[in-house]
Prior knowledge:
The chain has 183 residues and is an alpha+beta fold. It has a single domain (11-157), classed as Glutaredoxin, CATH 3.40.30. It is 28% helix and 17% strand. The longest helix has 11 residues, at 42-52. The radius of gyration is 17 Å and the shape is globular. It starts with 10 loop residues before the first helix and ends in a 26-residue tail after the last helix. The model has no long low-confidence stretch (mean pLDDT 89).
Amino acid sequence: MFGPDYKAGCISCSSIADGFNDIVPHLVNHDVAFSAVSQAPLEKLQAYKRRMGWSFPWASSNGGDFSYDFHVSETKEQQESGVAEYNFRTEDTKPVLEPPEGSAAAMFAAASGVDYATYTREGPGMSAFALEDGVVYHTYSAYARGVDGLWSMYQWLDRAPLGRNEEAPGPWWRRHDEYDSPQ
């Protein structure tokens, strides 16, 4: 959602996070804690959180192994070696060092203030954990398209007459505070 070198949060992840604020009270009242976790330093996360008007808990894993342990982040060395683990399988990462011509991901990288290779070292994912008798258990993870169910905007657009309207030129969504600005 927000890599350590990013100047701003990922457009896609920011859109997903727009739906987090109002679910937290429902989760808490069902004995479920919630927190987003990103690699950026906490100060950057807090500033972006204020900009976006979010109130959900957001932790920084900067300097720790959490994002690497759950394979949503990879180091530059892993990426350059051409082999990294994501979604519990080994992936060839060499093709991601250069963006496909005109790709949306390249535009999202630029909007996050980083080059394509840096942008693609962070991937989407979510995990669930259970605490029982002082032991933390990893109970569930979803990656890539498995995270789409958390994206409330998609659920509405998938039911609209034009669907996601992904054929629109350029990125077809923006951060919620950028819709009035030109692309």
